[in-house]
């Protein structure tokens, strides 16, 4: 299955070959790679080089190296949380702004809402309604953490309704980033109420199978959130400046 790796980037060559085998369907979740000795012979590498490659693949979430009976390097389906964490680690070193996040949301989320209006199942539509209902109950009780979870899941259900795994991953990750911003900026009850009002309008459009309205309401919602969070960020920055001058 594999060819001898002869370049200076031996480890990367091994990783690429195994990833390609997964992409081509030659290796599937649950499969076990050949024993270490056999892999060393196929790749033409030392034990140390092979183990470095397998550790890298395990870190990527592509394999799970197990010991003992039934052990070996098992192919696994990459967990979405592992993927999102890798993306987050990259962005921690970038000057990510609310504007950056909102720009992406405006491009993708209105499309997702329109797709949901066209194809959402009755079950998922019921889940959207329940999430909004629970979120309002939590808001009334000032259970902000619980409300926030319902609010985020509302967007995730819409993403799932697109049946596009790329959109699902991106929107799931975007919602995580948005939640991080909210934890820092701490928007008030009025903001939360406006979010739920927007969710009601989006839900109505999706329920009525009106893609154009669903898209427009989602865009309006994202824009409103951007404006509110940007104002909070500006106020916090101004407050910090005042503290320094005091």
Question: What does this 3D model show about the protein?
Answer:
With 246 residues, the chain is mainly alpha-helical. The protein folds into 2 domains: 10-75, Arc Repressor Mutant, subunit A; 81-245, Four Helix Bundle (Hemerythrin (Met), subunit A). 74% of the residues lie in helices and 3% in strands. The chain has 10 helices and 2 strands, in the order H-H-H-E-E-H-H-H-H-H-H-H. The protein has helices spanning 10-23, 36-43, 47-60, 80-91, 98-119, 122-140, 144-160, 165-185, 189-207, 211-245, and strands at residues 63-66, 72-75. The protein has a two-stranded antiparallel sheet. Helix 5 packs across helix 8 (165-185), helix 5 runs antiparallel to helix 10 and helix 7 (144-160) runs antiparallel to helix 8 (165-185). It is elongated and about 65 Å long. The N and C termini lie far apart (69 Å).
Topology (elements, then pairings):
Elements: H1 10-23, H2 36-43, H3 47-60, E1 63-66, E2 72-75, H4 80-91, H5 98-119, H6 122-140, H7 144-160, H8 165-185, H9 189-207, H10 211-245
Antiparallel strand pairs: 1-2
Helix pairs in contact: 1-3, 4-8, 5-7, 5-8, 5-9, 5-10, 6-7, 6-9, 7-8, 9-10
Please estimate the helix content. over 70%
Strand content: under 5%
Spell out the CATH superfamily of the largest domain: GntR ligand-binding domain-like
What is the CATH domain class of the largest domain? Mainly Alpha
Structural class: mainly alpha
Tally of helical segments: 10
Distance between the termini: 69 Å
Radius of gyration: 23 Å
Q: Widest sheet: strand order?
A: 1-2
């Amino acid at each position: 299955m594999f060819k001898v790796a002869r370049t200076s980037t031996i480890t990367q060559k091994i990783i690429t070959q195994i990833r390609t085998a997964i992409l081509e369907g030659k290796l599937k979740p649950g499969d076990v790679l050949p024993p270490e000795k056999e892999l060393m012979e196929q790749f033409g590498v030392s034990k140390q080089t092979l183990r470095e490659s397998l550790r890298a693949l395990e870190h990527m979430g592509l394999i799970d190296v197990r010991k003992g009976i039934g052990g070996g390097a098992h192919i696994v389906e990459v967990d979405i949380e592992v993927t999102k964490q890798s993306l987050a680690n990259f962005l921690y070193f970038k000057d990510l702004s609310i504007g950056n996040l909102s720009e992406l949301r405006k491009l993708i989320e209105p499309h997702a809402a329109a797709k949901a209006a066209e194809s959402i199942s009755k079950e998922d539509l019921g889940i959207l309604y329940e999430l909004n209902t629970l979120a309002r109950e939590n808001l009334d009780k000032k259970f902000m953490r619980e409300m926030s979870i319902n609010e985020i899941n509302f967007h995730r259900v819409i993403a799932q309704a697109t049946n596009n795994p790329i959109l699902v991953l991106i929107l799931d990750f975007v919602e995580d980033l948005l939640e991080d911003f909210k934890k820092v900026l701490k928007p008030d009850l009025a903001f939360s109420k406006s979010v739920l009002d927007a969710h009601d309008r989006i839900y109505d459009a999706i329920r009525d199978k009106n893609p154009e309205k669903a898209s427009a309401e989602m865009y309006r919602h994202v824009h409103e959130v951007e404006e509110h969070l940007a104002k909070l960020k500006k106020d916090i920055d101004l407050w910090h400046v005042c503290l320094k001058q005091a």
